């Protein structure tokens, strides 16, 4: 059995109330001294409503207390004793349940406080992330505008580059055309094979004499007047060899008039003679020396 107020295990004497509750002597004295009520049913207690009882009576007390009582009264007393014991067990179970419920309620309140704090933290983090997302959206929008502007600038620069490339290609083609047109007149000159005067001068020049003289009209300037007046024709004698030159050399001829010499050296020389190579000049000197 336990006290219905402090719920300590009862030993020895206890106090029973008319409302069917059991108290320890300490709690019963406190209630009676303060004119308080029962802690279970809130009934006001007095000394006439309480009775001291033995929790664990000995056999002698039991025999003396039950002596002279009829069986009907004993059975009725036993029934009330069983009902009292059952009520005490129910009160004990209810107390335990109330205590467990109180503990669970306390734990739930503590967990609710923690969860409320966590929820507030999550809500603050959510608001922070929402603001950050909003800032990121604004930044993305700004970057998109910058990207569009850069794409437009790049397109403009690419168009200008293509235009400059076209102008460069056009100028280069004009330059190449002008270069070809400048080089082309030099390629229009009449070219002929020139003899090698230094490998075997005697044989080579004598063998190539006729072709050179046949091709003389290409390089000889057209001087006014008959040719015999300037260089008279050669007259080969019977004793002269095939390579003998007498009257045909300019050194053996008579002095020419000044005006004739001026005509030979004047500006009537064609461009082909002005562009003659040094080897050809050496051939002229050898022929007319």
TrEMBL record:
Keywords: Coiled coil
Coiled-coil intervals: 119-181
All residue ranges annotated as the RING-type domain in the record: 2-43
InterPro entries noted in UniProt: HEI10-like, Znf_RING
Keyword Coiled coil tagged: yes
GO BP annotation list: chiasma assembly
Name used for this protein in its record: RING-type domain-containing protein
Organism: Populus tomentosa
Source lineage: Eukaryota, Viridiplantae, Streptophyta, Embryophyta, Tracheophyta
């Amino acid at each position: 059995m336990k006290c219905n107020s402090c719920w300590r295990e009862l030993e020895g004497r206890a106090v029973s109330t008319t409302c069917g509750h059991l108290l320890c002597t300490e709690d019963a004295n406190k209630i009676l001294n303060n004119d308080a009520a029962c802690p279970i049913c809130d009934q006001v207690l007095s000394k006439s409503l309480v009775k001291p009882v033995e929790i664990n009576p000995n056999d002698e007390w039991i025999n003396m207390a039950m002596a002279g009582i009829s069986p009907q009264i004993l059975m009725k007393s036993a029934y009330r004793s069983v009902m009292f014991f059952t009520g005490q067990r129910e009160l004990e179970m209810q107390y335990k349940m109330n205590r467990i419920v109180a503990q669970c309620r306390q734990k739930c309140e503590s967990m609710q406080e923690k969860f409320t704090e966590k929820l507030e933290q999550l809500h603050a983090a959510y608001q922070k992330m929402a603001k950050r997302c909003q800032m990121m959206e604004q930044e993305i929008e700004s970057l998109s505008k910058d990207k569009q502007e850069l794409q437009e600038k790049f397109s403009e620069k690419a168009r200008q580059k293509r235009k400059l490339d076209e102008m460069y290609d056009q100028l280069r083609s004009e330059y190449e055309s002008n270069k070809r047109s400048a080089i082309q007149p030099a390629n229009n000159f009449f070219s002929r094979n020139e003899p090698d005067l230094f490998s075997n001068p005697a044989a080579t020049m004598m063998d190539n004499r006729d072709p050179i003289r046949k091709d003389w009209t290409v390089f000889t300037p057209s001087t006014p007047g008959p040719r015999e007046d300037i260089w008279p024709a050669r007259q080969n004698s019977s004793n002269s060899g095939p390579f003998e030159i007498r009257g045909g050399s300019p050194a053996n001829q008579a002095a020419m008039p000044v005006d004739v010499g001026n005509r030979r050296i004047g500006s009537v020389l064609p461009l082909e003679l002005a562009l003659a190579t040094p080897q050809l000049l050496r051939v002229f000197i050898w022929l007319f020396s």
